[in-house]
Write a structure and sequence with these properties.
single chain; 6% strand; mainly alpha; 125 residues
C-alpha cells in the first residue's frame, strides 16, 4: 500500500479504497486476512481507530468479515461484488465523458484499439 495520503478525502476512506484496489488487482484474494489494525496503524502512522473505521466500511459493504479472535478476512465473492459495482460506476459516471470526447475527436474503434497505428498515419500526412 502507498504510504502517502492526500487531503481530498478522509484517511479512513483512502485506506478503504486501497484495500478495494488490492482486492480488484488480486493482491488480496477471497479468504485472505487483512493486515491487523495495529500493524497498519503503526506502519502508516495513523490512529488505530482510523484504520478500524476504514475496515468497518468494508465489513458494512459485505466485502470483509470479522472472525472473533482471528481478525478480518476477505469474503467469498468480494471481488465479483466490487467488479459489478465498479463497472456500473464507470459506465454511469466516467464513460459518458469519455464517449463524448471520442465523438468530439472523431476517433474510430481502430484508432482506439491500435493507437500506435493512428500515430504513424498522422505522421505520414
Amino acid at each position: 500500500m502507498d504510504r502517502e495520503w492526500n487531503d481530498s478525502q478522509p484517511i479512513y476512506r483512502q485506506l478503504r479504497d486501497r484495500v478495494v484496489a488490492m482486492i480488484l488487482d488480486g493482491v488480496l484474494k477471497e479468504g485472505d486476512p487483512l493486515p491487523s489494525v495495529r500493524n497498519v496503524a503503526a506502519e502508516f502512522r495513523v490512529n488505530p481507530l482510523t484504520v478500524l473505521k476504514g475496515y468497518q466500511q468494508l465489513v458494512d459493504e459485505g466485502l470483509v468479515e470479522t472472525r472473533r479472535g482471528r481478525g478480518m478476512f476477505i469474503n467469498a465473492g468480494a471481488r465479483n461484488l466490487l467488479l459489478q459495482g465498479e463497472r456500473q460506476k464507470f459506465l454511469s459516471e466516467q464513460w459518458p465523458r469519455i464517449h463524448e470526447t471520442i465523438q468530439r475527436l472523431g476517433l474510430s474503434a481502430e484508432e482506439l484499439l491500435n493507437p500506435s497505428n493512428s500515430r504513424k498515419r498522422g505522421e505520414e500526412s
